[in-house]
Design a protein that fits this description.
about 90 residues, alpha+beta, two-stranded antiparallel ribbon, 4 helices
Length: about 90
């Protein structure tokens, strides 16, 4: 039987499955990256930059995570250079 967590957002209450191992490389961080991403209202690209930088020492592929952070930073720079809103 699946356990569910209920969260509320602007769209109302939403049911999401409970993840048993809850991504331990994020749980050890305080605050968790998702809280910062949501709290600062970061977009997808910048949120991924923060996520990969936050976890690079904990997941086992530090260089890969830092390279991913750089790639998403370049995506965001490109988006802004092409007229995207901040």
């Amino acid at each position: 039987m699946n356990e569910y967590t209920y969260i509320k957002d602007d769209l109302g209450e939403m049911e999401i499955p409970q993840v048993e191992d809850k991504l331990q490389h994020y749980k050890r961080l305080s605050p968790e990256p998702i809280a910062v991403i949501n709290g600062w209202n970061l977009n997808f690209n910048v949120g991924n930059v923060l996520k990969y930088i936050a976890r690079y020492r904990h997941k086992g592929d530090a260089i890969g995570d830092l390279e991913k952070a750089v790639q998403y930073l370049y995506y965001e720079i490109d988006r802004l250079r092409n007229g995207g809103a901040i």
